[in-house]
Write a structure and sequence with these properties.
The protein is of the alpha/beta class and 249 residues long. It folds into two domains: 105 residues, Tetrapyrrole methylase, N-terminal domain (Cobalt-precorrin-4 Transmethylase, domain 1, 3-Layer(aba) Sandwich), CATH 3.40.1010.10; 119 residues, 2-Layer Sandwich (Methyltransferase, Cobalt-precorrin-4 Transmethylase, Domain 2), CATH 3.30.950. 27% of the residues lie in helices and 20% in strands. The chain has seven helices and ten strands. Strands 3-2-4-1-5 form a five-stranded parallel beta sheet, sandwiched between helices. It has a five-stranded mixed beta sheet with strand order 6-7-10-8-9, with helices on both faces. Helix 2 crosses helix 3. Pathway: Cofactor biosynthesis; adenosylcobalamin biosynthesis. It comes from Rhodococcus xishaensis. Pfam families: TP_methylase. Keywords: Cobalamin biosynthesis, Methyltransferase, S-adenosyl-L-methionine, Transferase.
Amino acid sequence: MTVHFIGAGPGAPDLITLRASRIIAECPVCLYAGSLVPGELLTLCPDDAEVIDTARMSLDEIIEELIAADAAGRDVARLHSGDPSIYSAVAEQVRRLDAAGVAYDIVPGVPAFTAAAAALGRELTVPGVSQSIVLTRVSTLSTAMPPGEDLRSLGRSGATMVVHLGAHRIEQIVEELSENYGSDCPAAVVAFASRLDEIVVRGTLATLVEQVHAAGITKTAVVFVGRVLAAEGFPDSYLYSATRPRGTH
């Protein structure tokens, strides 16, 4: 039997892969994060499926459910918001499943930052402006950042900066990034990306704090900082250049 860790996407129920949809429909057990995963996805579960909201469960309680399902010969759809590869708490779960000898796999999903970039209508890697993206977050009471991964250090590259889960620390983000990016650098915040209540704020590092507070954004948001957000006059990429050699097939 298998525990399937499934990326359920950023919020819109139709931003889920065909593979994920098929697996959910086949699994007799579904564990999902009720505060983050869209409830509409639960309609994909079999009518007689055991559906468990993990929002108020501890890690040990979740693992107990996964091991019990495996012992009973039942496949599990374990739904996580966004994509399991970032900020998903999947690592600590699979570590325990490895120790228990429980098989699992991972189904990728649409991460919040790509849905947010789509809402902005912007490519995050623009020729001649930025070809790198830094995905990061800020320290919280629950999880500190490792040494050297503070925003000032990461910002020295000048790459497009994407800060997850940071709306409640917007003053800190602006202060620490302004040193390297400048107060005139384009910036944006997208809250609840892809959902009906999506909020988009565009400005600069000089205006962002006031704009975020005015919009009432406090959580479930992605912060973007970088010149790509307002890039104009950049060179075309080589990908579609007429000078690029192309085969006949």
